[in-house]
Design goal:
Elements: E1 17-19, H1 34-48, E2 53-59, H2 63-66, H3 73-81, H4 90-95, E3 99-104, E4 118-124, E5 138-141, E6 144-147, E7 152-154
Parallel strand pairs: 1-2
Antiparallel strand pairs: 2-4, 3-4, 5-6, 6-7
Length: 155
């Protein structure tokens, strides 16, 4: 529901947040800072439009291979944040100033590497008063996000 099955038809021009859709860089071109440049452009756009920030659901592709060493997806995310585990996607997003809000369980069931889960992350526009953009605008619930107006959005 969040992305209208990837079509983006739920877009609201009056919205205060940008939802970050999938981003990928060809493995042959990694190391050229293309991903970093895309994130920088996204953040610059948010700043120019005076929006509150960017909300994303980040894959956790390292989760499946470390699943036996952690106590669930939240513990995995906590260990990535603490630097005890490196996850190629979440670590990159943290490096880009995103902060975790929680885990979206069963977000993308076909994502086997993440065991279907995603990290719920936010980047806050530093030029917007934080009191205007509180965490309560989005909260994690069983399988999606809940907007500040109480409407539930499912993955």
């Amino acid at each position: 529901e969040i992305t209208a099955n990837g079509f983006g038809t739920r877009h609201s021009a009056a919205g205060e947040w940008v939802y970050g859709y999938e981003m990928a860089v060809d493995p042959k071109l990694r190391g050229l800072r293309i991903g970093q440049r895309i994130y920088d452009e996204r953040k610059e756009l948010v700043e120019q439009l005076d929006l509150h920030g960017i909300v994303i659901a980040g894959r956790m592709p390292g989760y499946l291979r470390t699943k036996r060493k952690v106590d669930g997806p939240k513990d995995y995310l906590d260990k990535v944040v603490q630097g005890k585990i490196r996850d190629q996607v979440v670590s990159f997003q943290l490096k880009n100033g995103f902060e975790p809000l929680g885990v979206l369980e069963n977000y993308l069931p076909e994502d086997k590497q993440s065991d279907g889960h995603a990290a719920h992350l936010v980047w806050r526009n530093p030029y917007v008063d934080p009191d205007e953009a509180e965490d309560e605008h989005f909260s994690v619930y069983e399988r999606g996000l809940e907007r500040f107006d109480g409407e539930r959005l499912r993955a």
